[in-house]
Amino acid sequence: MKHLLTALALTTALTAVPALAQAKPVTFTTQMRNYGGDGAYLAFYVTDAQGGYVGSLWMAGGKAKYYRHLTGWQAATGGDTAQVDGITGASVGAGRSLKITLDLQDALFDAGYVLHVDAAVEDMRESPNEVVLPLTSDSVGKAVQGRSYIDTLTVSF
Amino acid sequence: MKSVLALLALTTAITTTVVGALSAAPVPEVTPAAPAAASPLGPLVRSAVVVSGGATDAATAPAAASPAAPAPMRLAEDDDDDEGWFFGRRGHDDERRGGHDDDDDDDDEGGRGQGRGPAPAGTSAPPANGLFAPGAKPAVQTN
């Protein structure tokens, strides 16, 4: 009976290990263009295959009153700042780079999820969907160009 | 002569009565004159704009009381100031305040229905949105 319980415990532990391993650090490297303006607010968020909002990954820029200019994120969240609690940092200056490393669930890749980055800069045009990047294994390691303010965005493991 | 005096007295009496009646009559008609009744609408319209704001008020209010039209215009301006420093607004608030930098206006965030600012990275856990591994802490680097 003891052996049986031990075997059961071992099996359970082995089963649980993959669950713990189902996350890995993912790095998002964003290189900004020299757009000639002040620091950019950037909202990184994920939608599912149907375009429904799933959650936010990062918010660059700490003042909630400007989030309305990140129009895609604002529409998806209603400006709910709780969505970016603990994942908010400073805005990113022109020509600078932002490197964010997050422990993300493996299930986020190759399952139809899409990364969106909205951008807004003082005195300049809002840029919802500055970058739209399907989260697939193929997209990893490849630099994607932004529309206005982001030169390149690269996702890497 | 007596009849003349009597006639004069009668005429005076009739004139007084008629004129008195006529002068008394318009009083109640003048009291509800339009301007006096319309002026309270001004403040009412302004209040409505203050509460709800935006273009909808501009569309509904002016027809009711045109004298109140300038008020929504001003309020709309004020509302625009709330836009902050994006998109051509930079310096607008600051100029009025003698060059005060808008970056210091953190207090504004709580009073405009936007709620509090988010917790900065490192001060609380990421949201439980199913994207992050439990207990994950983001690392960020800017160059």
Q: Which range does the strand content of chain A fall in?
A: 35-45%
> What is the terminal-to-terminal distance of chain B?
118 Å
> Number of folding domains of chain A?
1
Element-by-element helix/strand order of chain A? HEEEHEEEEEE
What low-confidence regions of chain B span 5 or more consecutive residues with pLDDT below 50? 15-83, 88-114
**Major sheet size, sense and barrel closure of chain A:** 5 strands, mixed
The chain-level structural class of chain A is alpha+beta
Most strands sheet of chain B? none
Radius of gyration of chain B, CA atoms, in whole angstroms: 34 Å
**Helix content percent band of chain A:** 10-25%
The total count of strands of chain A amounts to 9
- Unreliable runs of chain A: 10-21
Distance between the termini of chain A: 44 Å
- How helix-rich are the residues of chain B, as a percent range? 40-55%
Greatest interface (CB-CB under 8 A), with counts per chain: A-B, 48 and 40 residues
Signal peptide (chain A): 1-21
Keywords (chain A): Signal
Protein name (chain A): DUF2271 domain-containing protein
Pfam family, one (chain A): DUF2271
Can you walk through the features of this model?
The complex is a heterodimer of chains A (157) and B (143). Helix content of chain A is 17%, strand content 39%. Chain A has 157 residues and is an alpha+beta fold. With 143 residues, chain B is mainly α. Among the domains of chain B are: 1-31; 35-90, no CATH class. In chain B, helix 4 (41-52) packs antiparallel against helix 5 (55-64). The model of chain B is unreliable at 15-83 and 88-114 (pLDDT under 50). Chain B: Keywords: Signal. Chain B: Residues 1-20 form the signal peptide. Chain B: Residues 55-143 are annotated as: Disordered.
